[in-house]
Amino acid sequence: MRAQHLRQVLLVVIAALVGLGLVAVYSASAMAGRQTYGQDFYFLTRHVVATLLGLGLGMGCLLVPYPTVRAWAKWIVFGSLCLLVIVFLLGHEAGGARRWFRLGRWSFQPSEIAQLALVLYLADVMARKRAWIRDFWQGVLPPLLVTGVGAGLVLLQPDLGTAVVMGGTVLVMLLVARARWQHVALVAAVAAAVFVLLVAGAEYRRQRLLVFLNPWQDPGGAGYQILQSYFALARGGLIGHGLGGSLQKLFYLPGVHTDFIFAIIGEELGLLGTTAIMALFALLVLCGFRLAMLAEDAFSKYLICGLVALIGMEALVNMAVVTGLLPTKGLPLPFISYGGTATVMNLVACALILKASRSSDLRMALAQADRKRLLEIRSARSLGRR
Hints:
Layout: H1 3-37, H2 42-63, H3 66-71, H4 73-90, E1 92-94, E2 97-103, E3 106-108, H5 110-128, H6 136-155, H7 160-176, H8 181-200, H9 203-213, H10 224-236, H11 261-294, H12 298-322, H13 340-356, H14 361-385
Helix pairs in contact: 1-2, 1-11, 2-13, 4-5, 5-6, 5-7, 5-12, 5-13, 6-7, 7-8, 7-12, 10-11, 11-12, 12-13
């Protein structure tokens, strides 16, 4: 399939997910909005505003010259890291975590910005260091250091789930860039060891793991949320009870319009509805990686792969948590969960995917420049050996 056709399919998939998200947010949040704010449309209105803002920023990204996007990558990631530091000083604390900036009745989460900025920056770094990517110290370590700083700041919030997604995305980008599999395996092993230590070192994380293994040991406490999610999915059956027919959203299941909205979709639209959601995300990932393989320059290839992996991993983790395949972790379902910053950043990411996948004379020039630089580096290294 040609790149143009893939972009068209991708646009349809994104539009379908955004549309389903608007319907699902209203269905899941109407009662909560009425109970808390006296407005059925309270959460839907804010979700629509975030969607429109994301579409507007996405359109703005499409208008920015492509070389400018790449040139500003290091400044964007620097700004996002600064926000991650500032949030510790001026951020809003909720549930024992300090992850948000509060602006009146609105808030935004800098870690969502940092994820996209990190992918943009690493795509540029890996493209420039393509000749050294199979060397650990010069090709693999520099991207890992930047990732470690970003993930470390996110862990301090604390937000283990987002840090894991950031790390997983970087590993995918290293594999696509053809780093040595031994180096990637070593990095993955070290990351897994750090993950185990982080889980073992925090009581609430150990509790989540124990509940994941047996939620019935504390059905009214730590296991309550996942058990209510099971009840929602089981009640939905094959075809569900129709839009608005959920009982679990009547203040039984916490997070119905955010992290656990997938369970409400399962209750109202059944197995057919949840399968359709999974199929849309699978199609998004397949189209995205296919566009990456068709990209004419290294930067575009790595950028598309990184952004697709980021969206795909967030979706996979969210659905795995809701269905009990992973321990409970607060990650939104892309395009569907209520969440302003995540919605905006996911739409901006889609705009960057579409922009990077466009075939043009400029892209050809970038590819030729990358090849010329690669030949110059290889020539210099061969002269050095002599």
